[in-house]
């Protein structure tokens, strides 16, 4: 499964996520600080 890199715009935590986790983060925000995430916070490797 392809992964993308999530970098939180607030706490700057970088996490490698799969598509399912990406959807979850877009839905619920950063797993670390719960700041809402946008498409721009994800980067294909
Ligand atoms: Zn964060």
Q: How would you describe the overall organization of this protein?
A:
The chain is α+β, with helices and mostly antiparallel strands and 45 residues long. It has one domain. It is built from 1 helix and 3 strands. It has one helix spanning 19-28, and strands at residues 3-7, 14-18, 42-44. It has a 3-stranded antiparallel β-sheet. Strand 1 (3-7) and strand 2 form a beta hairpin. 11% of the residues are buried. Zinc ion binds at residues 8, 10-11, 13, 30, 32-33, 35.
Quick overview:
With 45 residues, the protein is α+β, with helices and mostly antiparallel strands. The protein has one helix and three strands.
Counting DSSP E segments of at least 2 residues, the number of strands comes to 3
Task: Walk across the major sheet and give the strand order.
Answer: 2-1-3
What's the helical proportion of residues?
10-25%
Strand count, sense and barrel status of the largest sheet are: 3 strands, antiparallel
Q: Which percent range describes the beta-strand content?
A: 25-35%
Radius of gyration from the CA trace?
Answer: 9 Å
| Number of H/I helices | 1
Inertia-based shape: globular
Order of helices and strands: EEHE
Total domain count: 1
């Amino acid at each position: 499964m392809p992964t993308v890199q999530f970098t939180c715009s607030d706490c700057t935590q970088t996490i490698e996520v799969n598509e399912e986790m990406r959807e979850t983060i877009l839905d619920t925000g950063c797993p670390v600080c719960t700041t809402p995430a946008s498409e721009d916070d994800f980067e294909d490797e």
